[in-house]
Design brief:
The chain is an alpha/beta fold. Helix content is 46%, strand content 8%. The chain has 15 helices and six strands.
Length: 351
C-alpha cells in the first residue's frame, strides 16, 4: 500500500498553461476555428500531459487472469480460452497482434492469475509472458465471497504501475490497455453496479455472445455477488477486491502508472473503462492522462464515459477487448500531434 500511496502523491494534473498555449497556437494556423474538431481537443490535451508530446514507441499492455465467476456459466467461453488467446498473443497470432502490426506498436502480456491447471494435455505454451502471477488459479468466485483479498488487489495495481515504469524506461510513451480473462464482463458489470444506481438491465451486456437466457442468469449472478459481499462502496479498492478481477486491478495500475509518468494511455472497451473509473476514484488527476478510444457495444460503457467526462472518437461496434479498440486510436493521436507542425501559421490573423 505504501508504493501505491507514493505513486498517487506523484500524480499531478495536466498543465493548464501548456493547454492554453496549444489552443492559441491552433487558432493561429490556416483553418476555421475548431475545424479539426476532436483532433484539436486531443492535441490540446496531449500538450497538457507533456510539453511538445509526440509518440515515439507505442505499446499495448495486456493484463491476463482468470475469474472464479466463470464457473457460474456466465460466459459462452470456458476459462481455458484465456490460455489459448494469450498463447496466440505471445505468438503474434491474435487480433491485437494483427492490428498492432498495422499501427507499428508492440504487444506485451502480463500474467496476474491465469489458471493453467485447466490444460490437462499440456498443449499450451505461454513462453514469453511476463510472469507476475498473484493467484495460481485466478480469482475466487464472487458469488461465494471476495474475488481476492484487499492486499492482493493493491499488489495487482502495483504490478500495473511497475510495468508502466519499466516500459517508460525502455522508451515507450504511448500506452493502450488490453485484457484477457473469461468472465470479466461479469466482474466489470458488478463493479459498475456497486458504483451506480443504474438497473442491471441497463449496464449488463452479452459479453462473449451469450443468449438471452444466459444474460438473465448473468444478472442474477451479479445480484448474488453484491448481496453476498460486504462491500464498502466508498472504497474503490474494496469494491475491486470484492467483486472485481486481477485483470481489472492490473489495468487500474496501468492508468495510475501512466499518469505518474505523464504519458497518455488509451482506454479500450468496457473492462478497461471500468478500470479507468476505479483509477479515477483512487486519484482524480489520473483522468487527465486517459484518452477514450471507441464506444464498446457493452451497454455500461456510455455511463462510464459520462462519469469520466470523456468522449470516444470511434463508433465501430467493437466488443472483442484485448486492446483492439484502443490501438486503433494510435494513428489519430499521432495525427493530432502533427496539426501545428505542418500547417502554415498566420499568428497575426488569430482566425
Amino acid at each position: 500500500m505504501r508504493i501505491l500511496k507514493e505513486v498517487i502523491d506523484k500524480i499531478v494534473p495536466a498543465s493548464e498553461e501548456r493547454m492554453q498555449k496549444k489552443a492559441k497556437e491552433l487558432n493561429s494556423i490556416l483553418k476555421t476555428p475548431d475545424g479539426l474538431g476532436k483532433m484539436e481537443e486531443l492535441a490540446i490535451r496531449l500538450e497538457g500531459m507533456r510539453e511538445n508530446y509526440f509518440p515515439m514507441k507505442k505499446l499495448v499492455l495486456v493484463i491476463a487472469a482468470d475469474n472464479g465467476v466463470e464457473r457460474e456459466g456466465v460466459s459462452k467461453s470456458k476459462r481455458v480460452i484465456t490460455q489459448y488467446v494469450v498463447e496466440a498473443m505471445l505468438n503474434k497470432k491474435s487480433s491485437i497482434n494483427a492490428l498492432s502490426k498495422v499501427f507499428d506498436s508492440d504487444v506485451k502480456v502480463v500474467d496476474l492469475g491465469i489458471d493453467e491447471t485447466t490444460d490437462t494435455k499440456n498443449e499450451i505454451d505461454l513462453f514469453g509472458i511476463i510472469d507476475k502471477k498473484l493467484m495460481e488459479n485466478g480469482t475466487e468466485n464472487i458469488v461465494n465471497g471476495p474475488a481476492m483479498t484487499y492486499e492482493t488487489a493493491v499488489k495487482a495495481i502495483e504490478v500495473g504501475i511497475e510495468m508502466v515504469d519499466k516500459f517508460v524506461k525502455e522508451g515507450y510513451n504511448l500506452f493502450a490497455t488490453g485484457e484477457m480473462g473469461i468472465g470479466n464482463t461479469t466482474t466489470s458489470s458488478a463493479i459498475l453496479k456497486v458504483f451506480t444506481d443504474f438497473s442491471l438491465d441497463n449496464i449488463v451486456g452479452y459479453g462473449s455472445g451469450i443468449d438471452d437466457k444466459t444474460l438473465e442468469h448473468k444478472k442474477n449472478v451479479i445480484r448474488k455477488a453484491i448481496q453476498n459481499n460486504d462491500i464498502n462502496e466508498k472504497d474503490a479498492i474494496d469494491v475491486l477486491a470484492k467483486v472485481g478481477g486481477l485483470d481489472i486491478a492490473g489495468i487500474v495500475g496501468i492508468f495510475l502508472g501512466c499518469a505518474k509518468n505523464q504519458v497518455p494511455v488509451v482506454i479500450d472497451g468496457f473492462i478497461s473503462a471500468v478500470a479507468a473509473l476505479i483509477a479515477f476514484k483512487i486519484c482524480k488527476n489520473s483522468r487527465d492522462y486517459m484518452i477514450a478510444s471507441h464506444l464498446s457495444e457493452e451497454p455500461g460503457m456510455k455511463y462510464i464515459m459520462r462519469e469520466l467526462d470523456l468522449e470516444p472518437s470511434l463508433f465501430m461496434k467493437m466488443k472483442l477487448g484485448e486492446g483492439t479498440g484502443a490501438v486503433t486510436m494510435f494513428p489519430i493521436i499521432e495525427a493530432s500531434c502533427q496539426i501545428t507542425k505542418n500547417v502554415r501559421k498566420y499568428p497575426e490573423l488569430n482566425i
